[in-house]
């Protein structure tokens, strides 16, 4: 279809465009076919989010959202159809444009600016100018919200100067963006001084609630690979609740969280059967345990399944790659908790460590950093096979969490990291322990601390190579050479 033959030969409804997957599972984005009325189904899911939230958080209609949303440049396939990430497709749609001004502080022109720096800068200054209107803050993925906070850390002086003089810096050159922000940005010496006072002392704990004091919760996905960002987001937000409201993929929307204010570790999603046709492949020990697919109405509580979708866009029994556990039912509708990506495993021998198990181990080890005024800002992992036997390598980027007078990350020496390595290994599975300690089939785990800003550079590299800022996710590296997916 992408190279030329008319899609109507395969489907009754012609393909309207191709959605690019994030690329984090296999290294390269996939082309996902979609049809025009798929946007209606996505909008149906999105339209239910606020009614659900209103049941748990009062007063949301009294303000707006501080959302950092991004698009990327789109391409065309040889057949002439657009190829772009699902978020870019949605943000450029009439569905989104109709409601954007009422739901977030960011001007539409800033969201639709493909230059990530200009877009972030304009959205941040707009959010600062409207800080008292903000009742919720978020991004699609937690990693992007963390990057927005880091952007504020790096550019608060320039942002404050813009607000003081009521004029946007020349670093934002897009005429449409400048015109949109001009309607929001007015000279405000008091606000500029407030930003300088709040950001200049080096204390970033609770910065979100200090600058946006009416914020009631964070709206961002912290399940799956995003779970690693939960502790640092709690630090920056002053322990605000974090709501993971929806479960969507490039292939199709899937469902929503009917109990959004639960602890992130307890998040379950109720799949809406009108969004696609859903089937489930039972799994056992991380691999498919059967060839017979189970229908949505016949899944069993407590069991794990890999989700399989047949979509309106033409995918037939497509394995999305997400492994889910049935946690219960809403009336007769099953509720699912995301467990892992089916292919995201570290393995040297017979061991199989998935991202959830590694995340728990890293959380346990990171507790040892607290007395030293440090925390894990971001991490990834790989298996090193240059040595025989091989071993796990975990890359940490650290950030200081100590208040003024604290010692920061400088005191995290080799002895502390050695203890962290042992703590991670203690938290891994019994199979890993046998292979590591009894059989000697795995060498000791290694933590490598990367310099500050490394993961931000990784994001910048991915975006420069065509990844979507809004869909970027860090996943385990794929081989012993340390090559990382481009998006």
From TrEMBL:
Keywords: Ligase. GO terms for cellular component: cytoplasm. The keyword Signal does not apply. Residues 269-341 form the GH3 middle domain. It comes from Panicum virgatum. Residues 357-475 form the GH3 C-terminal domain. It holds the Pfam family GH3. Belongs to the IAA-amido conjugating enzyme family. The lineage of its organism: Eukaryota, Viridiplantae, Streptophyta, Embryophyta, Tracheophyta. This is Uncharacterized protein. The keyword Ligase applies. InterPro entries: GH3, GH3_C, GH3_M.
